From TrEMBL:
It holds the Pfam family Zn_ribbon_2. It comes from the Bacteria. SUPFAM superfamilies: Probable bacterial effector-binding domain (SSF55136). It comes from Solibaculum intestinale. This is Effector binding domain-containing protein.
Amino acid sequence: MNVSYERVVLSPKTVAGLGLRTSNLSDSMNEDIGGLWNRFYSQAFERIPDKVTGRGIGLYHHYESDHLGAYDMMACCEVTGVDRLPEGFTTATIAGGPYARFVIHGDVQKAVAAFWQELWTLGLPRAYTTDFEEYICGSGGMQDMEIHIYIALDEEKQETPVCQSCGMPMNGQEWGTEVDGCKSTEYCKDCYENGAFTTAPTLEGMIEQCLPFLMQSSSFENEEAARQAMRRYLPTLRRWKKTQ
């Protein structure tokens, strides 16, 4: 997938639609969000007045923390105002400011899901204010859609890459080494030395190896919740993608 992006500065936008609260760690996340989109287009879209373009927007906001925390999601569209909006709708403001703008093409479900998994590994200096997907058009319908995805940036932060084996943010951590002694550009020193992995050879082994550190640094209710989170996250990293 092409993960290059363009930096843009947006003005605030007002949106109206339907919303829910979920988490990337929720087993029902995909089902819940899919159901929200179905309700939006079958029950809500035609009732929203004062649309700007009529394009569907998937908005993510009110983040609890980072991509592992809870957030609000809206299926919505941009509007010029909310004075004539019927009861029962949720409204929000997409924050103005700097964004990373990605353009992807493909199936609306598969392409978007693949994008978000890849995004978690990029180390963007995310603001975690308002991120959104805007569905533009597609000659092949829902299976061949052009989708613009905007990720809010915090320009006071530096990009923080993560180890593509254990997922550890590489802020102040040492990179591993290749056979020739050069620094690796993908893996930390705890996972990779002299061109070879030094850690567990299987995904489940890596999960169990990382679990104590994750429990110390995160707010998971118990080890099983943390374990399930890692089962979703680690397969998005390059080491484990190669074994899928």
